[in-house]
């Protein structure tokens, strides 16, 4: 008989893989690899996401990994920017291309006259001279394709040319207007030709399992996840959730049980954990999920207590005072406020090391 896993059991299993039951003392690149990437729509969130997961993490650790090119920031899962290891980018970028090609549909009428067979080589030729910003790429391509919408030209390059963002010495690793380089130039080799979707699914389960085919599709944006998991079925364990849905997992992956403690933790904006499943109840209750995303599609930062998202948070830094404001979804127990305040103060010291004062508040 197939074992049924409760929401709490799924919560603890996923937190164990996400290094959120206890901080781990491992190198930054290894951590990003274990997470199978971190969403990085903005440069700052991965720094906070690693701080909350790693023992003794320093911002310079991530900066060094970006500059030695063991980590890259590039378009990957769900056609969004991710921080991934260079090895994973090389291995899995080709698997992303069908999804990225499909993403061009959002251009609608703006794609009139867009010929990828001409635009992609033209963009590569421009970038072979050195890294460029997208403002520069669009302007140069517009000179060659004056009858094509400039935004369509830029979007096509973003999705169809393997590129990585060039890090800088800015505090969070990248300039406000970043330059992009050809991946094969930056890394010394381009993406592998093989569509390694099966291996990607194994890595997804290692980082986010147990999970359904729909969960894997939500995380990756790929439509082929179900087929891949079927091919892998003989080597996987299967479970069901409380609604009878089939879940796949690696046989030896950690599933610590639902009764273990989970410490207070702060997740940054866009953290992959809150986006990695179709059914997100293992992290955030359905009734709280609408609070997760703003009208302009920003994914809010959340705090965890007893393993689950209990509210959103934001910070402010003025006159050397670093302030953390927590906004719970519901009233928090006194123990939760105490644990979260301690963790929050530590996070503020990481974020604003020059602050003379840290303040943590819980708002209604």
UniProtKB/TrEMBL annotation:
Name of the protein described by the UniProt record: Winged helix DNA-binding domain-containing protein
Any matching Pfam family: AlkZ-like
InterPro entries to which the protein is assigned, alphabetical: AlkZ-like
Annotated source species: Actinomadura coerulea
């Amino acid at each position: 008989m197939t074992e049924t896993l409760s929401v709490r059991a799924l919560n603890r299993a996923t937190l164990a893989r996400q290094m959120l039951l206890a901080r781990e003392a491992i190198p930054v690149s290894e951590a990003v690899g274990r997470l199978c990437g971190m969403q990085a729509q903005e440069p700052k969130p991965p720094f906070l996401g690693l701080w909350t997961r790693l023992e003794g993490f320093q911002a310079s650790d991530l900066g060094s990994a970006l500059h030695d090119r063991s980590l890259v920031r590039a378009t990957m899962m769900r056609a969004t920017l991710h921080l991934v290891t260079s090895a994973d980018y090389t291995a899995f970028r080709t698997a992303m291309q069908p999804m990225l090609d499909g993403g061009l549909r959002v251009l609608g009428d703006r794609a009139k006259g867009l010929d990828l067979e001409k635009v992609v080589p033209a963009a590569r030729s421009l970038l072979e001279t050195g890294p460029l910003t997208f403002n520069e790429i669009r302007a140069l391509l517009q000179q060659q394709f004056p009858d094509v919408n400039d935004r369509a030209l830029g979007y096509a390059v973003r999705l169809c040319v393997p590129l990585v963002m060039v890090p800088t010495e800015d505090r969070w690793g990248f300039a406000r207007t970043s330059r992009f380089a050809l991946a094969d130039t930056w890394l010394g080799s381009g993406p592998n030709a093989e569509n390694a979707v099966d291996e990607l699914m194994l890595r997804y389960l290692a980082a986010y399992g147990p999970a359904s085919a729909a969960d894997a599709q939500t995380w990756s944006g790929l439509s082929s996840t179900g087929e891949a998991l079927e091919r892998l079925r003989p080597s996987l364990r299967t479970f069901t959730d409380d609604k009878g849905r089939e879940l796949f997992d690696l046989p030896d992956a950690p599933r610590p049980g639902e009764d273990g403690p989970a410490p207070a933790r702060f997740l940054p904006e866009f953290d992959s954990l809150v986006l990695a499943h179709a059914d997100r109840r293992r992290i955030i209750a359905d009734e709280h999920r609408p609070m997760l995303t703003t009208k302009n599609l920003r994914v809010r930062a959340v705090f965890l207590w007893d393993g689950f998202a209990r509210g959103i948070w934001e910070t402010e830094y003025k006159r050397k005072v670093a302030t953390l404001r927590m906004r719970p979804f519901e009233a928090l127990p006194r123990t939760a406020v105490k644990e979260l305040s301690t963790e929050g103060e530590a996070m503020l010291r990481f974020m604003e090391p020059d602050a003379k004062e840290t303040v943590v508040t819980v708002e209604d």
